[in-house]
């Protein structure tokens, strides 16, 4: 089993050189304390936690899994102690308000932390990760009383949170939610129903678990317009946060899963459990989207994390394992065979992993700046700015979640492939990465759901293509500076110009077709999302190559010349070997819906 090493050099490259986070933080009302020294200290501290505490538990936690006995759920050996260290370090409250015990730093710092924790041990990262969405939801929609009682404990990490949407009869289609909420004389509600697939749904890490639950009031309208949102604690507590009697919510079973085995994915039974309404009656789905969008960005990080971890496992193996001779002649002349890394196809796989991890990281870090600005607008009570940044982030979210998880899964599978048969057995840990990565394209909305959100809601309905035009305008702004240049930057710039025009043309053609063929959006959506992802990542690779080229030319990057050169070379690989995939998605997105829809449903049979 290989050891995880936090990719601090690449993180600092993006934070300090490409995206200029110091200047970004200077514009935020809560960014004054996020000095370069403070940010670096946080990165170093999280790296130690991840490398020395969380990563060593990744394989053992996967092997042991969680246990349910007599209604009590326990996590794998070492998890409880690791969580105690996490809480003692104050890591949960990094980006939450000081008034509730947090450190009040920008949201992006929490994202940097989550990326490292996720790569080190994704199953562990999910426990505090679900709490983040819970906190955000209560912050935005909870009453003053709910905030005062629950946020200090959640922000400290003493208590944790969950998101309870899915039921046995429905997943994404929340219009089918049946869980009931009956009003109680004291103003509370009795919640009754069953929720399934609840990540971190029950465990022994925190003293209390706060469930955010979708349910229906008596006489509520049918469909999504009749859903309300409730806070349901595992244990009741007094005004001082002292835990008391067990609420009527219990773990019926733990799911038997392909991966993330060290995270307790629970079936929760609510049998008249006492809950409190969040937001307004019948407006629960709107409030829940605060939680869901947090979870979707978190899942996008999973794609980056698994790509990074798989690359870190595959690279040393490719340098150490020997097989055959290079086609261009012996490389390791003193050895019985050449190292795998001399073979072009192995390099293709490694470069693909590297391109996904580092390109995806840049995409997520840019989105994190939008999240910072959106939250800053809330602090400044600037609704216009909030809506502007929320809309911009809304365009990123389905691309990040859908595209990066698909690419992270590809990177995880490539890591196994580099190992050959050794990748398929548990000894090296590569197959665990692939198993853990598989869920990322499914939960918090499948890739198909993200694609419909992107094309149907964000691109066509909400903005009539403006979000694509705005982003391609940014692409053209970068390309114009280098379009007549020679060398790699000129080649990339000209490619960006072509892709900018093509992306807008694709959007327009789908929009026109959808006017007469209502199935067009559904048939084209996944290809449109994947096309968008490849082109967006191309922009971020060009952005990194531009900065690396600039630093090398100025002489300022002499001490990191190998790092910057590798950046440019990886960007060249991406444009030459990965970006052409977008052409296939472009063509498929414009194919007639007839090829998908013409077969009668009865004709779908096992021959």
Q: What does this 3D model show about the protein?
A:
The two termini are 44 Å apart. A hairpin with a 5-residue loop joins strand 4 and strand 5. Helix 10 packs across helix 17 and helix 13 packs across helix 16. 57% of the residues lie in helices and 11% in strands. Among the domains are: 164 residues, Butyryl-CoA Dehydrogenase, subunit A, domain 3 (Up-down Bundle); 143 residues, no CATH class. Strands 3, 4, 5, 6, 7, 10 and 11 form a 7-stranded mixed β-sheet that branches. The protein has a two-stranded antiparallel sheet with strand order 1-2. With 607 residues, the protein is an alpha+beta fold. The model has no long low-confidence stretch (mean pLDDT 95). The protein has 19 helices and 11 strands.
Present the secondary structure layout.
Blueprint: H1 8-18, H2 21-26, H3 36-54, H4 58-64, E1 67-69, E2 72-74, H5 79-88, H6 107-120, H7 122-141, H8 144-156, E3 159-164, E4 180-183, E5 189-198, E6 208-215, E7 228-233, E8 235-237, E9 243-246, E10 249-254, E11 266-278, H9 284-320, H10 344-379, H11 383-419, H12 430-438, H13 447-462, H14 466-480, H15 487-514, H16 520-554, H17 561-578, H18 581-589, H19 594-597
Helix pairs in contact: 1-10, 3-6, 6-7, 6-9, 6-10, 7-8, 7-9, 9-10, 9-11, 9-12, 10-11, 10-16, 10-17, 11-12, 11-13, 11-16, 13-16, 14-15, 15-16, 16-17, 16-18
Q: Brief overview, please?
A:
Among the domains are: 164 residues, Butyryl-CoA Dehydrogenase, subunit A, domain 3; 143 residues, no CATH class. Helices cover 57% and strands 11% of the residues. The protein has 19 helices and eleven strands.
């Amino acid at each position: 089993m290989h050891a995880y090493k936090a990719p601090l050099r690449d993180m600092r490259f993006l934070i300090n050189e490409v995206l200029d986070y110091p200047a970004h933080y200077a514009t935020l009302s809560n960014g004054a304390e996020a000095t370069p020294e403070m940010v670096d200290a946080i990165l170093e501290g999280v790296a130690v936690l991840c490398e020395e505490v969380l990563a060593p538990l990744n394989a053992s936690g996967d092997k042991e899994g969680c246990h349910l006995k007599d209604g009590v759920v326990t996590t794998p050996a070492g998890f409880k102690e690791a969580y105690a260290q996490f809480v003692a370090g104050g890591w949960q409250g990094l980006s939450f308000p000081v008034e509730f015990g947090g450190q009040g730093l920008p949201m992006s710092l929490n994202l940097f932390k989550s990326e490292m924790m996720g790569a080190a041990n994704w199953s562990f990262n999910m426990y505090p990760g679900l709490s983040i969405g819970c906190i955000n939801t209560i912050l935005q929609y909870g009453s003053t009383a709910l905030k005062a009682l629950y946020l200090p404990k959640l922000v400290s990490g003493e208590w944790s949170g969950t998101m309870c949407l899915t039921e046995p009869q429905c997943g994404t289609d929340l219009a089918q939610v049946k869980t009931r909420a009956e009003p109680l004389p004291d103003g509370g509600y009795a919640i009754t129903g069953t929720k399934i697939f609840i990540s971190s749904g029950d465990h022994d890490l925190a003293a209390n678990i706060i469930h955010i639950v979708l349910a229906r009031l008596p006489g509520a309208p049918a469909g999504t317009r009749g859903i309300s949102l409730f806070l349901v604690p595992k244990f009741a507590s007094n005004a001082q946060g002292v835990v008391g009697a067990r609420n009527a919510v219990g773990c019926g079973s733990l799911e038997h899963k392909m991966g993330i085995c060290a995270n307790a994915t629970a079936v929760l039974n609510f049998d008249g459990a006492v809950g409190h309404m969040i937001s307004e009656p019948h407006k629960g789905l709107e409030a829940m989207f605060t939680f869901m969008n947090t979870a979707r960005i978190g899942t996008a990080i999973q794609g980056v994390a698994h790509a990074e971890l798989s690359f870190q496992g595959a690279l040393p193996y490719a340098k150490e394992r020997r097989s055959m001779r290079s086609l261009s002649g012996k490389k390791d002349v003193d050895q019985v065979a050449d190292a795998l890394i001399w073979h072009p196809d192995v390099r293709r796989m490694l470069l693909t992993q590297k391109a996904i991890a580092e390109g995806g990281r840049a995409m997520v870090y840019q989105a994190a700046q939008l999240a910072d600005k959106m939250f800053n607008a809330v602090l400044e009570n600037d609704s216009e700015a909030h809506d502007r940044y929320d809309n911009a982030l809304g365009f990123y979210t389905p691309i990040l979640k859908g595209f990066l998880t698909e690419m992270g899964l590809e990177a995880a599978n490539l890591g196994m492939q580099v190992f050959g048969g050794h990748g398929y057995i548990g000894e090296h840990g590569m197959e665990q990465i692939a198993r853990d990565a598989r869920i990322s394209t499914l939960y918090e909305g499948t890739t198909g759901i993200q694609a419909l959100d992107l094309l149907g809601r964000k691109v066509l309905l909400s903005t009539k293509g403006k979000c694509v035009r705005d982003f391609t305008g940014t692409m053209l702004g970068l390309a114009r500076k280098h379009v007549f240049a020679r060398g790699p930057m000129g080649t990339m710039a000209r490619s960006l110009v072509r892709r900018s025009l093509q992306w807008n043309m694709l959007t327009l053609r789908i929009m026109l077709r959808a006017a007469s063929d209502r199935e067009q959006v559904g048939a084209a959506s996944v290809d449109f999302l994947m096309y968008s992802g490849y082109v967006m990542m191309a922009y971020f690779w060009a952005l990194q190559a531009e900065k690396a080229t600039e630093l090398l030319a100025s002489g300022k990057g002499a001490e990191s010349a190998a790092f910057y050169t590798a950046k440019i070379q990886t960007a060249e690989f991406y444009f030459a070997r990965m970006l052409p995939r977008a052409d296939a998605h472009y063509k498929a997105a414009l194919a007639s819906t007839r090829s998908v829809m013409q077969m009668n449903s009865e004709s779908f049979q096992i021959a």
